[in-house]
Write a structure and sequence with these properties.
Number of helices: 3
Largest sheet: 3 strands, antiparallel
Strand order of the largest sheet: 1-3-2
Number of strands: 3
Length: about 80
């Protein structure tokens, strides 16, 4: 399973929206591996790359939205 798919599943398991801390915890459960700071940064990058709500949006698949505005760390699935 790719990182993007794992993140989508993690958010889905939290009812379609979740804070980064919940996403990290669910990501660990799904993969069975503890997360490093680098992995956490990769998760944030992946979400931001796939959200037009982010200044870092790459213009590809607009999958995530910022639930409570920029900086809140709460993301939902579009």
């Amino acid at each position: 399973m790719r990182q993007l798919e794992i993140i989508q599943l993690a958010i889905t398991r939290h009812g379609g929206k979740a804070h980064y801390s919940s996403i990290y915890a669910e990501y660990e459960r799904i993969t069975g591996r503890p997360l490093t700071d680098g992995t956490k940064a990769g998760i944030r990058k992946c979400i931001e790359d796939h959200s037009s709500d982010s200044d870092n949006y790459k213009g590809i698949d607009d999958i995530f939205y910022s639930v409570a505005g920029k900086g809140s760390g709460i993301w939902g699935l579009r």
